[in-house]
TrEMBL record, chain A:
Record keywords: Membrane, Transmembrane, Transmembrane helix
Protein name stated in the entry: Uncharacterized protein
Entry's transmembrane regions: 21-43, 49-67, 74-97, 117-138, 150-178, 198-217
Superkingdom in the source lineage: Bacteria
Keyword field contains Transmembrane helix: yes
From TrEMBL, chain B:
Organism lineage string: Bacteria, Bacillati, Actinomycetota, Actinomycetes, Micrococcales
Annotated organism of origin: Nostocoides jenkinsii Ben 74
Keyword Membrane (UniProt): yes
InterPro entries: Cyclic_di-GMP/3'3'-cGAMP_PDE (IPR052020), HD/PDEase_dom (IPR003607), HD_domain (IPR006674)
Residues spanning the membrane: 12-30, 42-59, 94-115, 121-138, 159-181, 211-233
SUPFAM superfamilies noted in UniProt: HD-domain/PDEase-like
Name this polypeptide is given: Putative lipoprotein
Length: 417, 423
């Protein structure tokens, strides 16, 4: 018995995206190996094997125990791998840093998808090696007689900044390729959400270095500096906990809509996703991306009212139920978008950008639903997308903000709606 | 003497002890010429600033607040060799310097209209007093601990200094726990819970002062910034945790009003049931945590009604058939679990549709929270939130189902908590 497979434009595009992602992952892994060799040749082999072994073990433990702590639903930010990589550089030598990074990544063998594992290992090797090279370069400028704490601090500080940048670019690039979104939006979003935690980890790494070598704690630093390491990790986990609480609140509202009407729930989910996609395409800051996703979920909440059992997708809504949700502080940020959503772009005063994005997302999804119902051919989805886009483009500059319409067109070209 | 008597007398005792410490330190300092000679003025200024900032930036751990930066700054002043010839400051000098910073912070707090929190400041001063006295009087190998620490290995010195600090911080925590001790809860379990709650932050506080003392000879005054940095990170994490908890609270509150706003239930139904459940839970001697869970279950028990396109008359789920009741509870749990409701809370909502006789006759496990919720919900459905004559009619109706539908213990508790106040 054989099974027939139909090659549709959608599946061909998916295949091409997957191939591009795999190629990028292979490139990052190769770069990781090459840079690790370079840092070994430049700085020499690791100087303290015991320290190296301890740090690899700790990185592996941290990697295994890592709770999923997502930033914008994309990147895990719970391990203290950056801290351990930064500590390895002055304590065990720059060549030790990529090994510690690899240790943390490889500890998740068996629990992580192979592609993700290879990318994580390659990326950590790259950022650790680059940080090691920066450290060597800065210290090379210090006078031989004055390799003081201040020079070490400067070298580590610069290495942390570069490490943070490389992390944002590499992770942003792999997400942009695999999700077909804008690299700029992803990288900026990551920088704004991971920048401070990176600096915090660099700061603690420097403290641990001071305890380890100048004060003379040696390996027992990992015990006496334990509270500092735990505090850093705990602080990072709180970031994830807050994100989960927000996502939970939105998920609860989506479920409330779902128990009332499956179709309305689908519409809500699609509008929320498209709002997020448009916000990323327009390179908005991470908090505005989150706010727009929230607005997408809330925009259809009035369907729950009893006198509106078949209310249509936010049209003519009086926002009673939505306003009630404004009591949740983080949801209140979405209120301007909801209240201005039906105001045309050409009106004066013009609606805020968030309302313009929500209006395009909501009306595009509505139009697509109408066209999808009319078509039954295999590529109906693609044709419905195009027909719905034409509806939106026809009112660009009057009802809809042209820059948002352009972003929608870009997303459609990449097949990301 | 009961625990409540001890608690009532403890606040003045704590403030009195702190005042006594301050007075003794002041007198001793005055008798010794009221001088303060330090080799590292920058260090003292930074520690002083840490105490002032710490007293302005306090963090709350449920019912008590603490000031990690202030505690760490004070301990650093007490343990770091900044006096002449690398000696530590005398006990009286440490207390006087710390008091100066505390008074400045209290002045700023008063000017900003913030509460002074004299109890907690006093508890901190008592804790510092313990550390200062221990570190200057205990000896190891015939030498005072602080002198011994200067020659010992780094890890040995760290262990000794951390022990001194931990003792002071433990006394501060114990003082607080005693102040808030409730007769119903064992003191030991409360201290254990407090220690768990303080967790990483308490440990970071106990380590910070000793680490500053050990890093200062190498890094000078920047040791304060270096060591207190991670503590500030942990405090920022605590702030974030407070925000997270607020999100959960607000989400539950907003979801509980969803059926009011959508027109499915009478206005304020969920809130009234939650208040009633809370009163009944206390009446039936549930712990604070159990009452909190019960309250959340009550707030969200009816949110599943949003699935109904035709609302129940008056939103009264008691009037719905058993299948509909179970469906509503099931949808409530689906929505609530997304918002982070704990398993116990979801179980209480699910089981609140079950008849009490299943427990009595077939030994089914129905949690007390579910039985309370069932009775409280029925009462509010029947009274519609009105008191007066409807109260007795509702109670009469509920008593008809006594032992079959409702748990008699819960119905008794309901009768007690809804009794009109005298007059």
């Amino acid at each position: 018995m054989t099974s027939a497979t139909h090659s549709t434009p959608e599946s061909a595009r998916e295949h091409a995206t997957r191939s591009r992602t795999n190629a990028f992952i292979a490139l990052v892994a190769t770069l990781g190996v090459l840079l690790s060799v370079v840092v070994w040749l430049v700085a020499g082999p690791p100087t303290d094997v015991v320290a190296l072994a301890l740090l690899i073990a700790l990185a592996a433990a941290s990697g295994r125990a890592s709770v999923l702590n997502r930033v914008r639903g994309i990147v895990g930010l719970s391990t203290i791998s950056s801290l351990l990589i930064m500590l390895a550089i002055p304590v065990a030598g720059p060549a030790a840093a990529p090994l510690v990074g690899l240790g943390g990544a490889l500890a998740t063998v068996g629990s992580t998808e192979t592609r993700r594992l290879v990318f994580n290992a390659g990326m950590r090797a790259v950022i650790a090696a680059v940080a090691g090279l920066i450290y060597v370069a800065v210290l090379a400028r210090a006078p031989q007689e004055d390799r003081s704490l201040a020079w070490t601090a400067a070298a580590l500080g610069l290495a942390v900044v570069v490490q943070c940048l490389f992390n944002a670019i590499l992770v942003g690039a792999v997400v942009a390729i695999s999700e077909r979104t804008s690299l700029r939006g992803q990288a900026l979003g990551l920088l704004s959400s991971t920048g401070l935690p990176y600096l915090g980890q660099g700061f603690v790494a420097y403290l641990l270095y001071v305890l380890w070598i100048p004060v003379g704690f040696g390996p027992s630093t990992l015990i006496f500096g334990g509270p500092a390491i735990l505090a850093t990790r705990w602080q990072l986990s709180q970031y994830g906990a807050e994100q989960r609480a927000r996502q939970g609140a939105l998920a609860a509202l989506q479920t409330a809509i779902e128990v009332r009407s499956g179709a309305a729930a689908r519409h809500t989910s699609e509008v929320a996703t498209l709002c997020e996609g448009l916000a990323v395409a327009l390179a908005l800051p991470a908090d505005e991306v989150d706010m727009l996703r929230t607005a997408g979920v809330l925009h259809n909440l009035d369907i729950l009212t009893v006198d509106r059992p078949s209310a249509g997708h936010g049209e003519g809504t009086d926002l009673t139920t939505t306003r009630a949700m404004g009591q949740v502080t983080f949801l209140a940020a979405a209120r301007p978008a909801l209240e201005w959503q039906r105001i045309p772009y050409a009106a004066r005063p013009a609606p805020p950008r968030s309302a313009a994005i929500l209006a395009v997302a909501d009306d595009f999804v509505l139009a697509r639903e109408r066209f999808t119902h009319l078509e039954v051919r295999p590529d109906a989805g693609r044709e419905a997308d195009e027909a719905a886009r034409q509806v939106i483009v026809a009112s660009s500059g009057t009802t809809y903000d042209p820059s948002v319409v352009e972003a929608l067109t870009r997303l459609l070209r990449r097949g990301r709606t | 003497m009961s625990a409540d008597d001890i608690t009532a007398g403890l606040r003045p005792a704590v403030v009195g002890s702190a005042t006594a410490i301050a007075l003794v330190a002041g007198v001793l300092w005055w008798r010794n010429g009221a001088e303060l000679v330090v080799e590292d003025t920058t260090f003292v200024v930074l520690a002083w600033l840490a105490i002032v900032i710490g007293e302005l930036w306090r963090v709350s751990l449920d019912y008590r607040t603490t000031a990690p930066l202030a505690v760490a700054g004070s301990m650093a002043l007490a343990l770091t060799p900044i006096g002449p010839d690398a000696t530590v400051l005398r006990a009286a000098q440490v207390i006087v310097v710390v008091l100066g910073a505390v008074f400045l912070a209290l002045g700023i707090r008063a000017a900003l209209g913030w509460s002074a929190g004299i109890d907690e400041v006093s508890a901190r001063l008592v804790g510092l007093g313990v550390t200062v006295v221990l570190s200057r009087n205990l000896t190891i190998e015939g030498r005072p601990v602080l002198t011994w620490a200067t020659d010992a290995r780094a890890w040995q010195a760290a262990l000794a200094l951390i022990a001194m600090c931990a003792a002071g911080i433990f006394v501060e925590l114990l003082t607080w726990t005693l102040i808030f001790w409730q007769r119903r809860v064992s003191l030991v379990s409360m201290v254990r819970e407090d220690l768990m709650r303080s967790g990483a932050l308490g440990s970071a506080m106990a380590h910070a002062g000793p680490l500053v003392a050990l890093v200062a000879p190498v890094a000078g005054p920047t040791s304060l910034i270096l060591v207190l940095g991670p503590l500030a990170l942990a405090m920022a994490g605590l702030r974030r945790r407070e925000r997270t908890q607020a999100i959960y609270r607000e989400t539950v509150a907003a979801l509980s009003r969803l059926t009011d706003d959508s027109g499915h239930t009478r206005p304020g139904h969920a809130r009234r049931v939650a208040d009633l459940c809370s009163a009944m839970g206390h009446e039936l001697l549930m712990s604070d945590r159990e009452v909190d869970n019960l309250e959340r279950a009550a707030l969200l028990h009816d949110v599943g009604q949003v699935a109904l396109t035709v609302p129940l008359p008056g939103g009264a789920s008691i009037l719905a058939d058993p299948d509909s009741q179970r469906r509503i509870a099931g949808d409530s749990v689906r929505i609530g679990s997304q918002a982070g409701l704990e398993v116990e809370v979801c179980d209480a909502i699910t089981a609140s549709t079950q008849q009490f006789r299943l427990m009595r006759e077939f030994g089914e496990k129905i949690p007390l929270a579910a039985r309370i919720l069932k009775v409280a919900n029925a009462y509010d459905d029947l009274t519609g939130g009105r008191g007066g004559p409807t109260r007795s009619a509702a109670l009469e109706r509920i008593q008809l189902g006594l032992g079959y539908e409702y748990d008699p213990r819960c119905v008794d508790a309901l009768a007690r908590v809804t009794k009109a106040p005298p007059g």
